[in-house]
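Morning run. Coffee first, then this:
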Amino acid sequence: MGPGAPLASAPKGALLGRIDQGQPFLIGDQRQVRMPAAGTLYLGVNDDMVSDNSGSLQVTISDAARGRRR
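And here it is:
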């Protein structure tokens, strides 16, 4: 991945998460991810040139500890 990507160690196009203003972390195709902190979860794609992007993605988030979907 290029130096302008949010997470240079992750594959291009991988799903990333970030809590509030924290560092991005790889979610990828994992079915379960433990959040590194409490706060607002932001999702994005690992890409160093977002100006040529189009399309959408669908993500389902659930609170496994409480058994609830959000």
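The beta strands are 15-19, 25-26, 41-45, 62-63, 68-69. Good start to the day.
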